[in-house]
Amino acid sequence: MDAPRILLTNDDGIDSVGFRALYEGLSAVGDVVAVAPADDQSAVGRTVSEVVEFADHEYGYAIHGTPVDCVIAGLGSICPDVDLVVSGCNKGGNLGAYVLGRSGTVSAAVEAAFFGVPAISVSMYIEGGDDWASLATEPDDFTTARDATTYLVDQATTSDVFDVADYLNVNVPFRDNAGVTGSIPMRVTRPSMRYEMGAEQNGGREIELKDGIWDVMRGDSVDDPVGTDRRAVADGEISVSPLTAPHSTQHHDALDEIVADYTSNTETNADAE
């Protein structure tokens, strides 16, 4: 096929270094149109606006809205003929089933799926700690994420990957490129089901909501099973989770019986009146 036309978005904002790294990398394998938030929209999930303003940008278009707004505006108006949506590269991992729904990066890929357009969301996990914000400040720091994304775009759009998966959620472990040689292995994963949210009352009328997984992820304390996204990045591997949308579950007899009983009881009560 011809070089794919790619809508590139993110949630860190169109001027973030991770976005720039992907734009430059993907431009080598496709026709890239940026439709991305004008500013940081991290952790907004699938929040959508009624009206958004947009402005021209050297990469394409800056949208004053959320990542989902960008996908809707892009696929619905600006560039409806794209072959693929790529969202990222997010600074920080989007790992585990409970995190995916609140991630603006992943939500952009989910929204593309409802349009019937395949998508890839890309994040870079940084172990960090108190110095987390000072890491990955240049496009070159996203080299591994850029190369992995470019590879997946090049390969997945010419195969049957998206006949089964609606989108791929990719997480790349960060490493300091200075003096590092050799490639990082890639693994097909599933989102970890481990849940670490908790709440603590701080006296008075405030309750602090805490995600304990980031403390667990530091060092060698991750005990998620092999095959999960979180285990892969903890082991220094690139995690690729093939996912689908909309959310669904298997049909089962137990719910059929409950619904049938409700209908039966409603009809009986109506006859008795």
TrEMBL record:
| Keywords of the record | Cytoplasm, Hydrolase, Metal-binding, Nucleotide-binding
- Keyword field contains Metal-binding: yes
Task: Supply the InterPro entries for this chain.
Answer: SurE, SurE-like_Pase/nucleotidase, SurE-like_sf
Cellular compartments per GO CC: cytoplasm
Cofactor note from UniProt?
A: Binds 1 divalent metal cation per subunit.
| Cofactor(s) recorded in Swiss-Prot or TrEMBL | a divalent metal cation
Q: Which reaction does it catalyse?
A: a ribonucleoside 5'-phosphate + H2O = a ribonucleoside + phosphate
Enzyme class (EC, first level) = hydrolase
Read off the Pfam families from this record. Answer: SurE
Report which superkingdom the organism of origin falls in. Answer: Archaea
Cite the Survival protein SurE-like phosphatase/nucleotidase domain residue spans from the record: 6-193
Localization, per the record, is: Cytoplasm
Kindly list the positions annotated as binding a divalent metal cation. D11, D12, S42, N90
Q: Which GO terms describe its molecular function?
A: 5'-nucleotidase activity; metal ion binding; nucleotide binding
Q: Which residues form a coiled coil?
A: none
Function (record text): Nucleotidase that shows phosphatase activity on nucleoside 5'-monophosphates.
- HAMAP family, per the entry: SurE (MF_00060)
Record family assignment:
Belongs to the SurE nucleotidase family.
This protein is called 5'-nucleotidase SurE
**Native species:** Halonotius aquaticus
Gene name in the database record: surE
